[in-house]
Design a protein that fits this description.
The protein has a domain of 113 residues. The protein is elongated. The termini are far apart. Helix 2 packs antiparallel against helix 3. The chain is an all-alpha fold. It contains six helices and no strands.
Length: 202
């Protein structure tokens, strides 16, 4: 018969946190913050109420378990993964951010446990955010460089076209001036010839 391995301290702590059930009374510091969540999602509301108890108990366990803050963050990240099934679950994401993450911030500010445990996110979540940020940055750089190149090409084409138009206008002016000059020149010769002819006839 196979012997089941003994559970680690972390597993035992996680099990006790999973089993924690608490309801907030009206005088609780956090009842006002979580009031809207009760009607929107009762399951998440129960977890949030339990978190207020778990956070306090974890602080009490800190002398015995120096890694308790890491455990607490890991446990909460696991709860988030269970609650938000995929990246497209926008409604649950919003509820989580609006209530659970804000609740954590309020728990941090408690005078008895003033910022003893700061919120940290799972490395996969941080990696996803970093990947998305880099992709957005690269896309922005590419778009701006294309716009810049397009605008310089456009300016170059405008200058080239304007130059051609001006050259055409100048050449047409020169041609028309030469034609006018030729007309005047031959017109004057014709007039002179007329005068000469007139003088011979008289």
């Amino acid at each position: 018969m196979a012997v089941t391995p003994a559970k680690s301290e972390k597993e035992k702590i996680f099990e006790s946190w999973d089993a924690t059930s608490k309801t907030l009374d009206a005088s609780s510091l956090y009842s006002e913050l979580l009031k809207g969540l009760m009607t929107e999602n009762n399951e998440l509301y129960k977890m949030a109420c339990s978190l207020t108890e778990i956070y306090t108990n974890a602080h009490i366990l800190q002398p015995k378990h120096p890694n308790i803050c890491e455990f607490l963050n890991e446990w909460l990240n696991n709860q988030k993964t269970k609650y938000i099934k995929n990246e497209d679950d926008m409604q649950n994401k919003k509820l989580w951010n609006d209530y659970i993450e804000k609740l954590w911030i309020e728990l941090e500010k408690d005078n008895d446990r003033y910022y003893w445990c700061r919120r940290s996110f799972s490395s996969s979540l941080v990696a996803n955010v970093l990947t998305i940020s880099i992709a957005v940055l690269i896309s922005t750089v590419i778009i701006f460089s294309l716009i810049y190149k397009y605008s310089t090409i456009r300016i170059f084409l405008h200058a080239y076209i304007n130059k051609k138009i001006k050259l055409k206008q100048y050449s047409q002016k020169d041609i028309s001036n030469e034609l006018l000059g030729t007309i005047f020149k031959y017109g004057n010769l014709h007039e002179t010839n007329k005068r000469i002819n007139l003088s011979y006839n008289s």
